[in-house]
Every structure is written in structure tokens, then in C-alpha cells.
Amino acid sequence: MRYVIIGNSYAGTSAVASIREVDSKGEVVVISSENYRAYSRPLISYFLAGRIRAADMYYRDRSFYSKNNVELRLGEKVVGIDTKLKTVQLERGEDIDYDRLLISTGGRPSLQKAAGIDAKNVFTFTTWNDAKKLRETIRKKRKAVVLGGGLIGMKAAEGLKANGLDVSVVISSPRVLSLILDEASGKIMNRHLISSGIRLMTGHSVTEVHSGSGGEVSEVVLDTGKKIECGIVVVAKGVRPNVEFIKDSGISLNRGIIVDRQMKTNIGDVYSAGDSAEAWDLVNRRNSVIAIAPLACEQGRIAGYNMAGVNRMYNGGMSMNSIELSGLPLMAMGLSKGSEGMEVETFQKKGLYRKLVFSEDKLVGALLVGDVRYGGVLTHLIKSRSDISSIKGDLAGHYLKTGEFGFVSNK
Amino acid sequence: MSKALKNRKVVLQPGLCDGCNRCVEACEEKINRGRNKNKRKTALIKIIRAGQFFYPVICRNCNDAPCVTACMTGCRKQDENGLVLTDYERCVGCWMCIMNCPFGAIERDVEDHIARKCEGCPDMGTAPCVAACAAGVLGHADTREYSSMTRRESAERFISGVVPASG
Questions:
Q1: What residues in B contact A315, CB-CB < 8 Å?
Q2: Measured between CB atoms, which of A52, A333, A407 is closest to B92?
Q3: Nearest by CB: A401 against B57, B72, B162
Q4: Which residues of chain A does B66 touch, with a Cβ-Cβ cutoff of 8 Å?
Q5: N or C: which end of chain B has fewer CB within 10 A?
């Protein structure tokens, strides 16, 4: 049996581990376009900020590949898959045979459309190389503009700020993290970031990028015509599944690669997991791309077992994020903003905001700002789709601890 | 350290807890030994009161522990005996584990910017909380004694949040 895994991050390496639990003999080949053994992508902002050393970027031991007898092919870009011949085509011409294939190629940054965006010192911020290039450049520059106020954009802004740069963030929505924050929590976060010295330009977009001598970016132009001088631009307009190369392979694709509860695609012996996959979303009750590390691990693990012949089902995942920006912690689980027809409880006091979203008798979302204690208990209630009708009422103003009905008021 | 000791984890039978709080005091005493008075840490075990019932909250070393799956740095790992252990030097304080612990057993340590939890006191013969527990709630058990099934079962029972406290 020859297992080929495209992608060397959380999903890919988790699949390796579960394959090897079951099958110690088969060949395992891991292909990665990057030149690093598995490292933590979410840590690149900590690396940029100088808060961790390069050695701490790796979340798997150095011996992971040798211990698991993996043939690691680094720096190889996959350009196509032939599902009839069962081969993977590498950019430099080689074809690699597989018996079982896992596509765990993660995401890639969405690009910004603006005249002059190809200027020098305009970066994306999703890989370690991106962070390294940024670190080189910040030594020579003093002002940076970040395009996009999502998780990546805000972590980039925080990292740049930690290096003493003057940072402006241009955000088309009225608030930062608009995908997960509602108006009240957005206000708290906006205010907090501004007081920590990050400039927010909400409700605006960049229409042009100007460059000066040597083609280096010199300023960006907002939709209002206002110009912001800068030596660095970081484009953080979100990520999407990195699946362009499978377009002609016959593998079903929506936003991501559509997989069933065993992480199987529509094509036999081809699986997908992680940010490239569109798997079961247990809050929205349909398949969706949820690009977060814990789900990549879980999906990778399930895919690995099934590839090795052990039937395991994916329970489904839900969107959740935990982030701390300039010392203010934030958690958003499930439908954290809520939607029409849903019951909502909120609790707010200075710098603290808690919101719970209910659909009938179930908790379907939670948003915690400033105080994230016992967040996991809420996550579990959402995930388990528990009937919580008997404890609804003033849940937002209390901590629900360890699933019992033990409330301790935080008022 | 003997192998048997390395293998053992702190386990509990919550139904027996009478809320005496001695485990909490014992834990606090140990983790604050030699620590500056104004930099004291809170205990890594807590007792929650729910009506007339008491529940100790402590790391349960879950099977396929969600905090390990959620840890983006790889600083938290589950060893071959099922113990969930943390390399705090590498914790960056992203709180992903807190968001995923169904027991609420991980604490955000703001001062050191780490996600703290009970590591089972592997440096001691008997953990102070276990030694202090007169009600027989806390104990040490070998992984084999404390099978994954038991852990799963107890996890499901105690985290479902819909079982009446007496049930």
C-alpha cells in the first residue's frame, strides 16, 4: 500500500500518525511545497513579533518523519492529479503513484485587487516565509498598512506594532473581525486596539498602491482619495482552499473539496482534510470549509484511519476561534453573531462582553470578550447539541462550569 | 521514580465530594512554595458547588484529549500512558485549549501568559490533593485501571450539561 499525502501541516501529519497506528508496513509519502518540516502556521505572528524563537515553530518532533518511516518530499509543488492512472504530477515533471491519496493542501491568501498592488514590499501573511520576509523588511521601514481586519490582518498588525512600526489597518467593514464579532463586541475591540496604538480605518478600502524608487511601495490611496504613506503593505483579505490544481481531476469541488463523513471525496481512494476540505459542519447542518487547526487535526486523523482501512466517522466540526489582541482575549464559537429568529442573551460590563445564541432548546453560538473562562464548557454544549432549555434565562451573566448546573455569578 | 508512579494519574469520583476544600488548599500550598507572596497562583483543582452537590474540577486526561488537538504550538501532548502533559516554555497563551476543554479545567494565567492545568504532580509519590482528600474522591490510578471507556463515559456524563445534578 502506498499512501501519498499532499500537504505537511496539521491535517497531513495527523493522517500520518493515524495511518501508522494501523499500518506499519505501507509506504507513506508526504509532499510539501514549502521547505520546512511541519511548523505551526498560526505561530507566524508570534514569530514576527519576536515572541518565539525559530526552534519553537515546529509542533512535531524532529524525529517524527523517521519514526513514522515517511518519505518527505519538501519544496515540491503539485500541479495536477490523474485519478485514473492514480498519479500526482509534480511541477518539475515527475509523476508520483499512489494507492490512497490525501489532499491536505490548506489555504492560500485571497488577493487584493488594486492598481499597483504588485509593488515591492507588499506581502501576504500566511506562511513562515511571509513572516521571514516581513521581518527582513521591517528593519528598514517605519510605517505599515494592513489591508483587512480579520484574524490574519489583526495578528499581523499586532506583530508589526510589537516591532515599533506605525500601523494602520484598512477595513472595509465597520469593525475588526466582522465575521465573528457583533456590533457591541466590535466596539470594545475597536476601542481597545486604538488605545494600544493601532490605527483603524474602518469602512474603507484601498483603490491604488503607489511605489517610489526601485518599485518599493510608498503609499496607498483610500476610496476617499486620502493617501497613507507606508513602506510596507500586508494584504490580509482572507484565505481560501488551495485547490486550484485539482480543477481538471474530476474531484468534486465547491468552495473546498467536498468530503463525506469518512473524509472521502467522490473519487475512490482520494481523501481530503483540513483547510482544503469542505466537511460536515454540525452547527450549520451542511458541509462547509472551516479553516481552523483543531479541525484540521481531527479531519486528518479520521482520513488517515479510513485510508488505512479502519472505518472511522467524522462527527463534524464547528467554527471556533480564540485570539488575544493586545492583551484582550476573545473567543467566538459557532454562530457567534447569531442570525434572524435566534434568541440571544448578552451580558456586558466594562471591557467585558458575553453573548450566547440559542436556536430553540440548543445553544448554537457563543461570544466571549475580555473574560474567556469556562469557554470550553460552552463549546461542548454547542457541539453536543444538548437540550439546555432548563438552564436558559440568565446564562450569559453566569459561568456555566463543567456542565453541571453550578453557576457562579460574575455580576 | 518507579514505573507505576509514572503511569498514574489523578482520578476522581465526584459523587463523594463534600466540598471540604482541603485539596484546593493542599494544591495551593504546593504550587506557591517559595513563591513571592503577591505572586501567588490559584490551585489547579477547584470545587464547584451546584445546589447541594460539589464537583471537583481538575484535568481528567481525556482520551484523544481535545486540548491536545487544539494546541497549535504542540506544547501540550498526551504520552503513551494517556497523561496530558505541557511544556509551558512553549505555550504562547492562545487559549485554544481553554476553548476546547469541556471540563473548564484549564486556566488563563494572565501574568505568565500561559494556559495552566493540573499536570498530576509526577514529582511526588502522592499528589498533595490526593493526600488531603478524606472523602475518598481523589485518588491515583494506573492507566490500565482507569480505562479509556471509563474516561469517556465520565466525560459524557459530566459534560453533557443536561443531566440533572442528582443523576
A1: none
A2: A52
A3: B57
A4: 294, 376
A5: C
* CA–CA gap between residue A197 and residue B132 (Å, rounded): 49
**Contact at CB, A40 and B161, closer than 8 angstroms:** no
In this complex, do B74 and A58 lie within 8 Å of one another by their Cβ atoms? yes
| SS3 labels along chain B | CCHHHHHCEEEECHHHCCCCCHHHHHHHHHHCCCCCHHHCCCCCCEEEEECCEEEEECCCCCCCCHHHHHCCCCCEEECCCCCEEECHHHCCCCCHHHHHCCCCCCEEECCCCEEECCCCCCCCCCCHHHHHCCCCCEEEECCCCCCHHHHHHHHHHHHCCCCCCCC
* DSSP line for A334-380: ESTT--TT-EEEEEEETTEEEEEEEETTEEEEEEEES--TTHHHHHH
- Taking alpha carbons only, the member of B157, B164, B161 closest to residue A387 is B161
Put simply, the answer to whether A386 touches B161 (Cβ < 8 Å) is: yes
Nearest to A402 among B55, B70, B164 (CB): B55
Question: What was the ipTM of the complex prediction?
Answer: 0.91
Nearest Cα of chain A lies from the Cα of B159 at a distance, in angstroms, of: 5
B72 neighbourhood in chain A, CB within 8 Å? 40, 42-43, 59, 293
Q: Using CB atoms, which residue from B104, B106, B108 is nearest to A329?
A: B108
- For B64, the closest chain A residue by CA position comes to A298
Inter-chain touch B95–A372, beta carbons under 8 Å: yes
Q: How many CA atoms lie within 13 A of A321 on its CB side?
A: 22
∠ CA A254-A11-A48, rounded to 5°: 100
Q: Rounded to whole angstroms, what are the CA distances from A375 to A182, A332, A399, B99, B102? A: 18, 9, 9, 5, 8
Tens digit of each residue's pLDDT, chain A (411 residues): 999 999 999 999 999 999 999 999 999 999 999 999 999 999 999 999 999 999 999 999 999 999 999 999 999 999 999 999 999 999 999 999 999 999 999 999 998 889 999 999 999 999 999 999 999 999 999 999 999 999 999 999 999 999 999 999 999 999 999 999 999 999 999 999 999 999 999 999 999 999 998 999 999 999 999 999 999 999 999 999 999 999 999 999 999 999 999 999 999 999 999 999 999 999 999 999 999 999 999 999 999 999 999 999 999 999 999 999 999 999 999 999 988 889 998 888 888 899 999 998 889 999 999 999 889 989 988 988 888 777 776 666 666 654 443 333 332
